[in-house]
Automatic annotation (TrEMBL):
<dbReference type="InterPro" id="IPR050201">
    <property type="entry name" value="Bacterial_glucokinase"/>
</dbReference>
<dbReference type="GO" id="GO:0004340">
    <property type="term" value="F:glucokinase activity"/>
</dbReference>
<dbReference type="InterPro" id="IPR003836">
    <property type="entry name" value="Glucokinase"/>
</dbReference>
<dbReference type="GO" id="GO:0005536">
    <property type="term" value="F:D-glucose binding"/>
</dbReference>
<dbReference type="GO" id="GO:0006096">
    <property type="term" value="P:glycolytic process"/>
</dbReference>
<dbReference type="GO" id="GO:0005829">
    <property type="term" value="C:cytosol"/>
</dbReference>
<dbReference type="Pfam" id="PF02685">
    <property type="entry name" value="Glucokinase"/>
</dbReference>
<comment type="similarity">
    <text>Belongs to the bacterial glucokinase family.</text>
</comment>
<keyword id="KW-0418">Kinase</keyword>
<keyword id="KW-0808">Transferase</keyword>
<dbReference type="InterPro" id="IPR043129">
    <property type="entry name" value="ATPase_NBD"/>
</dbReference>
<protein>
    <recommendedName>
        <fullName>Glucokinase</fullName>
    </recommendedName>
</protein>
<dbReference type="GO" id="GO:0005524">
    <property type="term" value="F:ATP binding"/>
</dbReference>
Length: 346
């Protein structure tokens, strides 16, 4: 199937450059992701991002590239050359600018997740976790936590004019476990092994296994789970005492961390959870006795208790978010141009 020869003003190529795969898609006439166009490419088959983009163009029948492009990358999108974390992929701003005849927008992949959630027309399925519903389409400040192979933290701020700003952070590499009742024995065991004890090393996919092994050692039993899939299997989650203790600690610890993040960024308008591990731990994170740890003791305890929470799942959040970020970037550029014209005319 060949797509339009003459590109509408808002059509663009969007890409999600991860550690093990790159996903590429086209936006529609309104600038939002066309899910039917999404393709995946393996670094073993495509040696560079440019060759992956060229392969995509051939696969969908593009005769030339649209001048608009956005990339969501696993890593810090700074500098002329951007290396993808734990991957062979490298992005060159100059090379991509030459390919698209205009500078592409390059953002962090978890920031792209947050951008996707900021769009009232996103395809994500939001599930409330509190009686009060999270409304990221309304003005406010929202904290997004992504729990998967890592732990992403991003802040979405929407003003009264509908302008959105997304702030990607490295909050997942903070500890903030002080004050969590009964946590010291597990934290001390992990610290004794020389591992930095951060939210990511405790609660992410690989972190869960490390936490579980520490619990097994403290209980004096051999680990029965050797993979994350085994650890999160329903039978283990209900019958293995070490798994039960691990998940109770993770549930309390994760909510304690989430409460600290909401306070740190003033995200009183809502907390949204996403990611594969968050989905797998759905039954654990919804337990009221564990979720109560979100209400960190102190002067803001009542405010935390009234903060709405939700979870959300997407199929292509990074691609949707890259498209939304590009639209907002266009809007800001147009506003800046109008102000410049008005200033010259004054």
């Amino acid at each position: 199937m060949a797509f339009q020869k003459l590109f509408p003003r808002l059509q663009a190529i969007v890409a999600d450059v991860g550690r093990n795969v790159v996903r590429v898609g086209l936006t529609d006439d309104l600038g939002r992701l066309n899910h039917e166009t999404v393709r995946e490419y393996d670094p073993a088959a495509q040696s560079t991002i440019s060759t992956a983009i060229s392969a995509f163009a051939r696969d969908v029948g593009l005769r030339s590239f649209p001048p608009r492009a956005a990339f969501a990358v696993s890593g810090v999108p700074r500098g002329e050359t951007i290396s993808i974390t734990k991957s062979r992929w490298i992005l060159s701003r100059a090379g991509l600018t030459a390919m698209f005849r205009a500078p592409p927008l390059i953002i962090n992949d978890f920031a792209a997740n947050a951008w996707a959630m900021s769009d009232p027309k996103c395809s994500g399925r939001m599930e409330p976790m509190t009686p009060t519903i999270v409304r990221p389409d309304l003005p406010g400040t929202y904290c997004i936590l992504g729990l998967g192979s890592g732990l992403g933290v991003a802040i979405v701020s929407r003003d009264e004019y509908g302008l959105v700003n997304v702030v990607p952070t490295e909050g997942g590499h903070l500890g903030l476990m002080h004050g969590l009742s009964g946590a010291d024995r597990i934290l001390n065991k992990l610290q004794a092994g020389g591992t930095p004890v951060t939210a990511e090393t405790l609660f992410s996919g690989l972190g869960l296994l490390s936490t579980y092994r520490a619990v097994c050692e403290l209980r004096g039993q051999a680990p029965r789970c050797t993979s994350l899939a085994e650890l999160l299997a329903p039978a283990m989650m209900t019958h293995d005492p070490a798994v039960l203790e691990t998940l109770e600690f993770v549930g309390r610890g994760f909510w304690h961390f989430a409460g600290n993040m909401v306070m740190a960024y003033g995200a009183w308008d809502g907390l949204i959870l996403t990611g594969s591990v968050a989905a797998a731990l759905k039954s654990v994170l919804r337990r009221p006795d564990l979720a109560a740890s979100f209400n960190v003791k102190g002067p803001w305890m009542r405010q935390l208790a009234s903060t709405p929470k939700a979870s959300i799942s997407f199929k292509h959040a990074e691609l949707e978010g890259a498209a939304v970020a590009l639209l907002m970037n266009d809007r800001r550029q147009q506003a800046a141009e109008q102000l410049s014209v008005a200033a010259r005319a004054a």
